Structures are given as C-alpha cells and as structure tokens.
Amino acid sequence: MHRPRWSLAVFLSLWLLAGLLPAVAQAYDASAVFDAKAGTLPLLLTVSHDGADFLGLFPHRTKGVTVRDVGTRELAERVADHLEKQTGRRPYLVIAKVSRRQMDVNRAEVDAVESAGLLPAYRAYHEQVATYVAELRARFPSGALLIDVHGQSYEPATTFRGTRAGLTATRLVDRFGPAALQGSNSITGILAARGYGVHPLPDAPTLREEPRFAGGHTVFTYGSHRPDGIDAIQLEFGRQHRADARLPEDLASAIVGFMKHHGLATQ
Ligand SMILES: [Zn+2]
C-alpha cells in the first residue's frame, strides 16, 4: 500500500525540480534577459518594455503597469541602422527580452519583480547598462547620451520627453541651456519641425514635463546629475508615431543633428 504513494511523492518531487531548475538557470543567463551590443557612437539606446519572454516559473507582476511598449525594440534597431547609414557608426544597444508582465527594468528593484529569484536577472540588465555608461564616459570625454526608448498610447500623436525637468541631462543643460532639450536643435525640437507632436513643446518657458512621462528609473539611475552618469533622456513615442514608417529615419536624423550641434562626436 505504501509503495504507490512513495512513487507518487518521488514523481512529484522530480516534476517540481524539473520545472524549477531551468527557472533558476535562466535567471542567471544574461542572454535570456537582454540583448546587448557595443557601438562606436557616443550614444546608448536602451529598450525596457518590448520583451515577450518569461523566465521559468517565476511569478508575474500583480502591481504596477504591465503593458508592452509595442514596436520600441524594432524602432531602436532601425534607428541604429539609419545612424550607421548617416554616420558610418552605430550606437550601443541594450534591449530587455523579458516581458514587463514579469520584470520591469525601468523600476527600482523593490517594484521591478515579485520574486527574489528574478533579482539576478534584473541586476544583470542594469550591470550591462552601467558597464556601457562607464565605457562611454571613458571613451567620449566630451559627452555621451543615453536614450531610454518607450511607447505610450494615452496621446497617440505625441512623443513625450522625460528628464525629470532637465535633471538627468544636467551636464547638457549646464553647458548649452534649456535649448539643448527643447530648442530647434534638440532631438524633440528637430522631430517637431518634421511634423511630430512633442511634449514639452519646443521653446516652452520651463523644462517642466508631463508627470506620467517625466523620466523613470533608468534615466534617473544613469543621468548626468550623478557623478558617474551621462546625459539621459527618456522618450515615450506615441502609438501613431511608432506606426509611422518614417520615424526611424527621422529620429536618427534628429539624433545626428542634435549630436553635431552639441559637440558629440559623430565622425
Ligand atoms: Zn515603457
């Protein structure tokens, strides 16, 4: 009578272990967490919220936003291709692969995951971003830029800038004034001149931003208000803009225009 129950217990234990072991292994495998590639421009593009993968059996997030920023991975990759066409050089890229339903890399640790088992994966993403930021600082003393690429659907025809009202681009604003963020040679200023709705508006009287999109964990962690940071701008592309086939080339042109005007090496 005892043998069948014992077998069942062994079977269940093995079944559970078989499920859990890959989960633990994957959490430590950086290639399951993000894609990363070093570049040659003083520019790092990060993509937080376009992942579709899940790490093992770890729980899904039950708090906070879990919607996917559809199209932002493709946008960053196509912008990288257009930058190469325009300058012969490529940006650095770090693209999260894990679904925001399980891990949100643009949140502080406490809000990013709902299982301590996912923290190594979360930390691996941020170690990669930090490594590239340190490399960019060393390689480009005249300045480097991080753009955290997002999407939003609240205002489909608007792209929002988030720098915590200029804070995460302190170095840029100190050197060139608020125009570096919203003048005619700023990234959103150039996009606006090409017909894209942007917020804040070009030449707005202050650097105040829409609170929902004012800059998240990534720009706040790596921005130039920190001694080891670089200028960091979050861009939240409206759904219509992400669906616009012209956006990748226009954004690449805007970035190149911005970099040339502000002394960031593009040649
Ligand atoms: Zn996002």
In brief:
With 267 residues, the protein is an alpha/beta fold.
The CATH superfamily title: Zn-dependent exopeptidases
What structural class results from the helix and strand content? alpha/beta
CATH architecture: 3-Layer(aba) Sandwich
Mean pLDDT: 91
Name of the top-level CATH class? Alpha Beta
Q: Which strands sit side by side, in order, in the main sheet?
A: 1-3-2-4-7-5-6
Number of structurally distinct domains = 1
Largest sheet: 7 strands, mixed
The CATH topology corresponds to Aminopeptidase
Give the ligands present. zinc ion
Distance between the termini: 79 Å
Helix content: 40-55%
> What does the radius of gyration come to?
21 Å
Order of helices and strands: HHEEHEHHEEHHHEHEHH
How many β-strands, per DSSP? 7
Would you write up a description of this structure?
With 267 residues, the chain is α/β, with parallel strands linked by helices. The protein has a single domain, classed as Zn-dependent exopeptidases (Aminopeptidase, 3-Layer(aba) Sandwich). Helix content is 43%, strand content 14%. The chain is built from 11 helices and 7 strands. A 7-stranded mixed sheet has the order 1-3-2-4-7-5-6, sandwiched between helices. It is globular and about 50 Å long. The chain binds zinc ion.
